[in-house]
């Protein structure tokens, strides 16, 4: 009888631990934002600076992984800021989509399905066909106001 009681108690304790573990993982999954296009992202830190809008000059630090290997990293060197003009620079769809959801000071992790990245063609020898891209670091460090159509750019 004692062995049966011990077995039941052990089973309940293990089940309880597994439930807590699954609940913790679920909490992380609840934080992931999924857009209609299939883009997924979650915040590491939320900023309070200006929002990225079409035409803004944006400065970011990035680390891009494909199949768990880093293929591009601007995050480690202080002078390696990646800058682009939001929604007017020729970038992949997923990068444009996620950047327009952010603001200065945001740091996220973003997962881009191949349909928002390089698709069936891939990108040279670095990104294979149908690759999912993971920006494990995507920090927006600078957002400049968009230029008006009649402003001159020097």
Molecular structure report:
The structure is a single chain. The chain is α+β, with helices and mostly antiparallel strands. It folds into two domains: 1-31; 34-144, Chitinase A, domain 3, CATH 3.10.50.40. Helices cover 24% and strands 29% of the residues. The protein has two helices and seven strands; from the N terminus they run H-E-E-E-E-E-H-E-E. Strands 1, 2, 3, 4, 5, 6 and 7 form a seven-stranded antiparallel beta sheet that branches. A hairpin with a 2-residue loop joins strand 3 (57-66) and strand 4 (69-73). The chain is globular and about 35 Å long.
Note the run of SSEs as H and E.
Answer: HEEEEEHEE
* Structural class estimated from helices and strands: alpha+beta
Poorly predicted parts: 1-28
**Architecture of the largest domain, CATH level 2?**
Roll
In helices, the fraction of residues equals: 10-25%
Strand content: 25-35%
Number of DSSP helical runs: 2
Largest sheet: 7 strands, antiparallel
CATH topology call of the largest domain: Chitinase A, domain 3
Beta strand count: 7
How is this structure best summarized?
Helices cover 24% and strands 29% of the residues. By secondary structure, it is α+β, with helices and mostly antiparallel strands.
């Amino acid at each position: 009888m004692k062995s049966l009681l011990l077995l039941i108690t052990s089973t309940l304790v293990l089940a309880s631990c597994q439930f807590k573990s699954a609940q913790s993982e679920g909490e992380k999954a609840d934080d992931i934002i999924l857009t209609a296009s299939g883009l997924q992202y979650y915040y590491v830190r939320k900023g309070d600076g200006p929002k990225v809008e079409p035409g803004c000059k944006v400065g970011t630090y990035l680390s891009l992984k494909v199949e768990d290997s880093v293929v591009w990293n601007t995050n480690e060197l202080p002078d390696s800021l990646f800058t682009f003009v939001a929604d007017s620079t020729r970038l992949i769809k997923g990068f444009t989509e996620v950047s327009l959801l952010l603001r200065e000071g945001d740091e996220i992790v973003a997962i881009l399905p191949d349909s928002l990245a390089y698709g069936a063609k891939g990108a040279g020898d670095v990104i294979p066909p149908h690759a999912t891209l993971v920006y494990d670091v995507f920090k927006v460090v600078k957002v400049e106001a968009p230029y008006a159509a009649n402003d001159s750019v020097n």
